[in-house]
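If I may wish for something, please sit down with the protein I am sending here and say whether tokens and residues agree:
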Amino acid sequence: MAKYKSLFNVEGTLGEITFYKNKDGYYIRSKGGVSKERILKDPAFERTRENLTEFGRTATSGKQLRQAINVLLFDAKDGKVTSRLTKALSLVKNHDATSPRGQRMVSIGLATAPGKASLKGFDFNKNAVLNSVLKAQYSLNTTTGEVIITDLIPNQQLAAPSGATHVSLTSAFLNLDMDNDISDLQISPIANLPLNGLATTVTLTPSAPATGTGISFYFLKAAFFQVINGIQYPLNNGTFNALQIIDIQ
């Protein structure tokens, strides 16, 4: 692999040479690698095929989770959330102790305590980690999905970004059956507070418990806004909004 300088920025393959770009600049390398047909058929690549199968299933599980909470996720995620979630779910999959190698599944891993622990606390926006944004203690009722933050003092217990004047807090309760791709998401009414010094007990209760035979996920979200002429606008398109899986049952 070599770095090259040219009057023209070239990307693609020319004969046996491939030109490509990464974050450090433009590079050149010789074309090579194992053919797709050999990977799919050669016994020597059996482990590779097993890994690819499990990776595909894990990526699908991540997609199911993201789609199930899209209404929460759309303004509280970073640009690499897909790959980060897939990596986290790969650890969950490893806790499937019953399936043969190459067939391990996230859904079975999540049925175990270590599997749940691997995903609990996952932040969908690495630029706004909930434990750094929210400095107050809260309680969770796993039967109803209700979250209570007692005597929250917004300007002391929230690490609000510069320019923010208000915060919206939301809890959510998801039941997700990955095997059958069935989900039920219940979201609490939004609690919108000015970022002042008044202590307020915030109660976030989803409209109903999530139903189904899958795994139960619980979320807490903090979104920041700025008031201009009496209207609240999302701050920096949600760059500093936090969304975390606070528990899994």
The longest helix spans residues 46-68. Residues 36-119 form one domain. The two ends are 48 Å apart (CA to CA).
